[in-house]
Design goal:
The chain has about 400 residues and is α+β, with helices and mostly antiparallel strands. The protein has helices at about 10-40, 45-55, 70-85, 85-105, 110-120, 245-285, 295-325, 330-355, 365-375, 380-395; strands spanning about 125-130, 145-150, 150-160, 170-175, 190-195, 200-205, 210, 225-235, 285, 290.
Length: about 400
Amino acid sequence: MARLAQTAGLTDIQQEILSTVRDFVDKEIIPVATELEHRDEYPQQIVDGLKELGLFGLMIPEEYGGLGESLLTYALCVEEIARGWMSVSGIINTHFIVAYMLKQHGTQEQKDHFLPRMAAGDIRGAFSMSEPGLGSDVSAITSKAMKDGEEYVLNGQKMWLTNGGTSSLVAVLVRSDEGHPEGTAPHKSMTTFLVEKEPGFGEVRPGLTIPGKIDKMGYKGVDTTELIMDGLRIPADRVLGGVTGRGFYQMMDGVEVGRVNVAARGCGVAQRAFELGVQYAQQRHTFGKAIAQHQAIQFKLAEMATKVEAAHAMMVNAARKKDSGERNDLEAGMAKYLASEYCKEVVEDAFRIHGGYGFSKEYEIERLYREAPMLLIGEGTAEIQKMIIGRRLLEEYRFQG
């Protein structure tokens, strides 16, 4: 058992789950991750293994066939999976954001229809907010839904859809002006639709096209796509929660879970980078001794380990805050910001320890070096997190003059 990133107060069940996941990562993910990543190959065998372990139902209530575990348990599992290969944790994350949104905001019919099959891994979830021209400005969404009898007709283009090809259920956020008079604040005229589709690429249902995968610097294996809606007809009973105009709040609730997830991913990648760095430092010799015996390298290792520990602690705090039912946007923003920044720094230090060999695709650190930057922008950039943190601090520490 590694000394770093331990979590106090876990139950026996939580420890057993984490031990099982850690063993799976060590045996089934780490040995093949770099090869699959270099081929940009979807890790079907790994995903099948996660399905067999029941991880697709980890946070889904037991009444729907899931394990009914906490966000903390989920985040710690994500940390372990990202330690093996961050792309696999992305496959799990988008699925759970949709499952969480259904659990928290769905109608009873929607929960009964989707959650048991999501728990079994037979339905894989994805969610879609971003568009080509808006980035972090969710209020600028232009995709629209128009009411037509008992259906809505959706039109528009979405971007950066993780699991776009492999998913069979997508939660899509669009504008829906129906029932909302002109001048209504943008975030009050948005609706989340539950869009069922066939896995794959091309036209996956009438009016819905998933083009091929976007070619990325890192975060390979998992499919990232666009989503194009052209006259896509969706029944009214597939409005999440059954009422229009609540989509922004539903999505932001899901994104808080996503930010804890991204923090956990940063922790996992940083842990792996530290492991690789400290191992290589004891194997590589210069000037007659292992480079780990040079003070400069020991300073790097000390800084790396401290950052791993600090990021893990903040991630655990954010997860526990959400599990308690309290508002956690401050804690989630801090955890996401710190973990992603520290991950980048720890990975770079491990890269430096490897010297020229870190630049070779033969070494695992090369893959981590390309993966870490995605965490700086996923689920909101560092600048967005700082805005959230700053506003919440001003709420908490309002000057009474």
